[in-house]
Design a protein that fits this description.
Blueprint (H helix, E strand, L loop, with lengths): L1 E5 L10 H13 L6 E7 L12 E4 L3 H9 L13 E6 L10 E7 L4 H4 L6 H17 L2 E4 L2 H11 L6 E3 L16 H4 L6 E6 L8 H10 L2 H6 E6 L7 H13 L3 E5 L6 H8 L2 E4 L8 H8 L4 E4 L2 H7 L3 E4 L4 H13 L1 H15 L4 H12 L3
Parallel strand pairs: 1-2, 1-4, 2-3, 4-5, 5-6, 6-7, 8-9, 8-11, 9-10, 11-12, 12-13
């Protein structure tokens, strides 16, 4: 079977969650001896790819192509490429093809329908146009959780049989001890710390964690820093101001800015006392598993997908209740036996996820479309 991936997100130097997903899926699909896996990407005049070895390139500006596709005016994506059995588009949009027998698209979440107020306007308009087209025209729709699968069925009326779930296990780097001294690198003043790790944008709901930290007893604040790991994203001015104000009030609030997911992230998780994911909405919740891989207890917002991913190994709180989160934090940070129990549960929970199994299940599914 010949499988082509549109790989622009996978080859980005600063990978998002979508980029990491695409990168690991491509790598693991290459493990099948009877599969020929090809990467294809727009690379106008050699400006986009630093390393184009093993990648089919299309000498046309990707931004212009995406705009043409938005208005249904794009030429076939694979017009100048070799024929293939299946083309997989891992980033929402399903581009036209002429040399592929089947097309597959990944829809990671429906935040633009569920929480449109926390999606950047230009992305909101784009996704509202391309996603309905993609799910209707694709031969197979991939998504990252069973929660998302049901949302797709409810939103677009497509049959469950057309949707295949591909979870997102943690990278191998998260499963090995890290020697990086994050306390020194990021000037973390206390041995223990509470970790938030994500790009900072409205749906990540950092506000509730900041408010919860301010409610903790002073002795806990003095013993446990709050480490906010991640760069500032869209519509983050208000939270930027709040963070700056609270940093003046609490010397124990630390910001790392952008961090590398394969070098810094494992060390940040492994050295944390507790990881908090307070999101209003997610398609999967990859950081929950990354924290569990680092043997760190997890507290997550009480939304269906984070319950699906974390299982019995994570604690939960209502998304708009900083008081409830503060109580969960205090319990984890003061009851060491309870924290150790959550770590054990997290290690067990991880056994449900592996890239080898994800790739195997997908490869078998591709043979049926």
């Amino acid at each position: 079977m010949k499988i082509r991936f549109e790989s622009s997100s996978a080859r980005s130097l600063k990978k998002s969650g979508v980029g990491y997903y695409a990168n690991r899926l491509i790598a693991n699909m290459r493990e099948f001896s009877d599969a020929e896996v090809i990467e294809s990407q727009f690379d106008f005049m050699g400006r986009q790819l630093s390393d184009s070895s093993g990648v089919e390139t299309i000498n046309f500006p990707q931004k212009i192509y995406a705009k043409l596709d938005y208005f249904r005016l794009a030429f076939p994506f694979d017009l100048t490429l070799k024929r293939t059995d299946i083309t997989i588009f891992p980033n929402y949009a399903l581009w036209p093809t002429i040399k592929s027998k089947k097309r597959v698209v990944t829809i990671h979440d429906l935040s633009f329908l569920k929480f449109p107020e926390v999606v950047e306007v230009k992305n909101l308009t784009y996704l509202k146009r391309v996603v309905p087209h993609a799910v209707r025209k694709a031969d197979l729709v991939l998504t990252v959780s069973h929660t998302m699968k049901q949302e797709l069925v409810d939103a677009y009326g497509i049959p469950e049989s057309k949707i295949h779930v591909t979870p997102i296990p943690p990278a191998e780097a998260h499963l090995s001890p890290s020697s990086l001294n994050v306390h020194q690198k990021y000037s973390i003043p206390t041995k223990g710390y509470i970790l938030f790790a994500s790009i900072i944008e409205p749906r990540k709901n950092l506000d509730v964690l900041l408010d919860a930290y301010s409610l903790l007893p002073k002795n806990i604040q003095e013993s446990y820093s709050l480490v906010v790991a991640g760069g500032m994203g869209w519509n983050s001015d208000d939270i930027e101001q709040k963070l700056t104000k609270m940093q003046k009030q609490y010397a124990t609030i630390v910001r790392t800015g952008y961090y590398d997911n394969l070098t810094d992230a494992p060390a940040l998780y492994q050295n944390a006392s507790v990881f908090v994911m307070p999101s209003l909405y997610e398609g999967f919740g990859m950081p929950v598993l990354e924290a569990m891989a680092g043997k760190t207890p997890v507290i997550a917002s009480d939304i269906p997908v984070l319950r699906e991913v974390g299982g019995d190994a994570s604690l939960h709180f209502p998304t708009n209740d900083p008081g409830a989160l503060a109580k969960q934090l205090e319990r984890i940070l003061t009851d060491k036996a309870f924290a150790k129990k959550q770590v054990v549960l997290g290690t067990e929970n991880l056994k449900r996820f592996s890239w080898q199994q994800v790739a195997k299940d997908l490869y078998e599914k591709l043979h049926t479309i």
